[in-house]
Amino acid sequence: MNQPTPAIVAQSAVRRLPRIALLLLCAAYLMPGLLGRGPWKSADIAAFGFMAELAQGGGGLARWFDPMLLSLSPETPALLPYWIGAWAIKIAPAWINPDLAVRIAFALLLAGAFAATWYAAYYLARTRRAQPVAFAFGGEARPTDYARAIADGALLALIASLGLAQLGHETTPALAQLFFAAHLFYGVAALPYHRIGAFVALLVGSLGLVLSGGPTVGLALGLGCVGVLVAERRRSSDGEEDSESEPTYSRGAIAAVLGTTLLATALGAGLGLFQWKIDLPGSDPNVRLIADLRDQAKLLLWFTWPTWPLAVWTLWRWRRQLLARHVALPLWFALVPLLATWTTDFSERSLLLGLPALATLAAFALPTLRRSVAALIDWFTLLFFTGSAIIIWVMWVAMQTGVPAKPAANVAKLAPGFVPHFSAVAFVFALVATLAWAWLVRWRTGRHRAALWKTLVLPAGGAALCWMLLMTLWLPLLDYARSYIPQVHAISEKVGQTECISELALSRPHIAALRYHGNFKLRSLATEAPCPWLLVSPAAIARLHDIVSLDGWRLIGTLRRPTSPSDDLLLYQRITPAGGGG
Question: What is the mean predicted confidence (pLDDT) over 355-368?
Fold first, then answer.
């Protein structure tokens, strides 16, 4: 016999969330930040550097399978994200900046992750064990309407996730991994309903994860899904499920999941993309185990807010159906990235892959929430995002007018050299977003018919509001603080027009920034003839003494990003003839 479902939902509670409202919310989250800025530190500009190198065409076809920035390979053993960025640069019109072309392409990836999450939640909610209790005299939610309401809730929960805000708007392999993980999730969820489309999503998701630097995660997700599907099929054959009334996983469907997983694994192994980078908590001798665990726990709590409390509630309320596909599949897709977060040094970017599954679990909490709990979520969300919006506005006013004096002084201290300017367009967008938030709060607190997705409207709307305000009112400040342009301009003023600059131990972000923003030709001091100028990372001073004699170089100064002393660069000028000894 089937275990009873904890969901009790009437048809009136699954009224449709207007599609235009949902699309506008997605657009308000996706589009801010596309214009008015360049690549940011550190992973953003580094990934863009590899894309720009591929787009320039140096190294031939072989270079596409071994991207390099000078002599450095990417930190993430990925290929496809850099290909996508390079293709975007190549096909973009000349009037579109290369970094904007890449951001547009990756914004489409985030939109694709949104769509895949919605459809994955929809097809999981269509299963019979996920449906609400049937009323004695009718009136319970219809299956498709209920599934659509759950899917709307899952998408709102994903948008509301705090960890998605910055990483979801960067042009890094992590965002590509999110896209492909979401499609793998959708493919497995939809396989009993749409074989061809689901199989294509499976193939795209499995191969894409491997080519985007997540081969181990893809392998673990695929094998775990096979186990869930085998258990699901066994329950059906044992009579726990009525296979005639609901599509289930056939042997061919299970073979498709296993086949795509093995194919992707073989491809990753053939291309040498499996690189084990295990970094267990406490493995750093300079960090205590307890401190490391505490940091990981803090990351989990804020990064997945507000989905994790709802996901935990789902696991408790649906505990009698933990092996049902609508709980087991998203649980597995959340656990694997969580395990990767705790065992690698890519903590935030690994955890990003679990957000679609956590959002789906959070959505299944909605039909089981008490009214008092939903009201508590609403009030907390209202206070948190309204307070955050007020802080953003006050800081913006302080930047523009100097009043209040303390916030203005803090900005001047944290971003020395920043000169604020007024943008009428940014002000209008910020004002419209704030008014829309006020209307949304008024609607949510007013008297209206209940809707299943209503609990997540304010969290999603608040996240979109704050991101919009940051990317309009604060965008010049954030771009100044997170860009390498001020540092590159300072270097340009010192060296002027020069044939090349030698470098020693520069990081990938610095190399990418110098090439893109300064259009400098860089050469490695360790392997090539010295240039008239030399840039050195302060951490490599000891190595510098072993490579050249400093008698032939004059220290010009230390150049830093105004907002980050850790990004200092030492600039030297050669004072001996180019053909002389070093």
Answer: 97
CA distance 169 to 478: 14
Smallest CA-to-CA distance from 48 within 112, 110, 98 is with 98
Q: Residue 164: pLDDT band by 50, 70, 90 thresholds? A: very high
Q: Does pLDDT of 222 surpass 70?
A: yes
Q: Distance between CA atoms of 198 and 191, rounded to whole angstroms? A: 5
CB 525 within 8 A of CB 555: no
Bridge-based pairing of strands 501-504 and 522-524 is parallel
CA angle 114-120-122, nearest 5°?
105
Kindly calculate the radius of gyration of the chain based on its CA atoms and give it in whole angstroms: 26
Q: Quote the CA–CA distance of 156 and 369 in Å, as a whole number.
A: 16
**Where in 379-532 does DSSP place strands (E)?**
501-504, 522-524
Any bridge partners for residue 555, and if so which? 572
What pLDDT score does 206 carry?
97
pLDDT (0 to 100) of residue 288: 65
CA 190, CA 199: separation in Å to the nearest integer?
A: 9
Question: Rounded distance, CA 429 to CA 210, Å?
Answer: 39
Q: What angle do CA 545, 550, 555 make, to 5 degrees?
A: 115
Residues across the chain:
582
Query: Which tokens belong to 348?
Result: 């935030």
Average pLDDT rounded to a whole number, residues 19-38? 94
Q: What is the pLDDT of residues 297-311, one digit of tens each?
A: 899 999 999 999 999
CA atoms within 13 A on the CB side of 282: 5
Cα distances (angstroms) measured from residue 278 to each of 281, 284, 344: 10, 12, 5
On whether the pTM is more than 0.90, the answer is yes
pLDDT above 70 (res 4): yes
State the Cα–Cα distance between residues 144 and 123, nearest whole angstrom.
9
362 contacts 330 by C-beta, under 8 angstroms: no
Residue 391 to residue 387: CA distance in whole angstroms: 6
* Pairwise CA distance, residues 70 & 72, whole Å: 6
* Cβ atoms 542, 550 nearer than 8 A: no
Q: Give strand pairing partners of 385.
A: none
pLDDT digits (tens, 9 = 90+) for 79-88: 999 999 999 9
Q: Distance between CA 347 and CA 390 in Å, rounded?
A: 31
User: Are the beta carbons of 414 and 561 closer than 8 angstroms?
Assistant: no
> Using CA atoms, how far apart are residues 158 and 355, in angstroms rounded to an integer?
6
pLDDT for 385 equals: 96
pLDDT tens-digit readout, 264-301: 999 999 998 887 666 666 556 656 678 778 888 899 99
The backbone torsions φ and ψ at residue 559, rounded to the nearest 5 degrees and listed phi first, read -110, 130
Residue 238's contacts (CB-CB under 8 Å, 6 or more residues apart) are none
